[in-house]
Amino acid sequence: MLIFGVDDDGLVVGLDGDIAGEIARLTNLIHDHVHPVAPHRIEPQIVDGKSVLLVHVDAGANKPYAMFRDPPQFFARHGATTFHATREEVIQLAAWSMPGGRYG
């Protein structure tokens, strides 16, 4: 889960302005830069009287997912840690998503 409206120290600072607009902006960013689009949902919440957004990202069946930049970036997750995937991890994820693979 990603939380928007919390600073680096975990303090709830909230989001200013139009929350519906922020949800639309996040949705557009995800759709424009992640391929295939990862299954997710964005949930507005009030915490300590301040607006935050929770972005729930579910495990999907269409791995690997890439964040499109120049060059595309792939990430791997091990437990609670996310980091740039190695070439070997990307190949393994792609093989697992093929028919007959771990996810296919």
Provide structural commentary.
Helix content is 25%, strand content 32%. Strand 5 and strand 6 form a beta hairpin. It is of the alpha+beta class and 104 residues long. It has a four-stranded antiparallel β-sheet with strand order 2-5-6-7. It has a three-stranded antiparallel β-sheet with strand order 1-4-3, with helices on one face. It is elongated and about 50 Å long. It has two domains: 1-58; 60-104, no CATH class.
**Biggest sheet layout:** 4 strands, antiparallel
Count of structural domains: 2
- Strand portion, in percent? 25-35%
| Helix/strand order | EHEEEEEEH
Total count of helical runs of at least 4 residues: 2
**Rg for CA atoms:** 16 Å
By secondary-structure content and strand pairing, the structural class works out as: alpha+beta
**Percent of residues in helices:** 25-40%
Number of strands: 7
Mean pLDDT: 84
- For the biggest β-sheet, the strand order reads 2-5-6-7
Cα end-to-end separation? 25 Å
Spans with pLDDT under 50 lasting ≥5 residues?
Answer: none
Shape: elongated
